[in-house]
Amino acid sequence: MLFLVMAIGGFYYWSEWPWLLRLIGLLGAFGLVGAIILQTTQGQLAWNTVKEARMEVRKVVWPTRKETMQTTMIVISVVFVMAIMLWALDGLLGLIMRHLLGQ
């Protein structure tokens, strides 16, 4: 963590250097920190988790365009029907409140 803070601090400390050179140095420092982290037990566990997550993403069966369009239309229809129902309920409650308040 200290190395990352020093790298970011150095990026701004040497602000008179060309921007691209500072960016390359910062990215190199991030890469070095990543390599150091991967040498630890927690780093290895994190890397294994990332690899397993990528394998799970490959196993996902993605819906076809037709299925996606059908589901989208169902969602739009339900939202529209619910909007109409809520609008009607709001109007009814407003009418009841006006009647109760004598307006």
List keywords for this structure.
elongated; 2 domains; 4 helices; 103 residues; single chain; Protein translocase subunit SecE; mainly alpha; 85% helix
Question: What does this protein structure show overall?
Answer:
The protein has 103 residues and is mainly alpha-helical. Helices cover 85% and strands 0% of the residues. The chain is elongated and about 75 Å long. Essential subunit of the Sec protein translocation channel SecYEG. Clamps together the 2 halves of SecY. May contact the channel plug during translocation. Pfam families: SecE. It comes from Candidatus Kentrum sp. FW.
Brief summary of the model shown:
By secondary structure, the protein is mainly α. The protein contains 4 helices and no strands.
Global morphology = elongated
Helix- and strand-based class? mainly alpha
Low-confidence stretches: none
Major beta sheet summary: none
The helix/strand series, from N terminus to C terminus, equals: HHHH
Radius of gyration: 29 Å
Classify the beta-strand content into a percent band. Answer: under 5%
**How many DSSP E strands?**
0
GO molecular function: protein transmembrane transporter activity
Transmembrane segments: 20-38, 74-97
GO cellular component, one term: plasma membrane
Pfam families: SecE
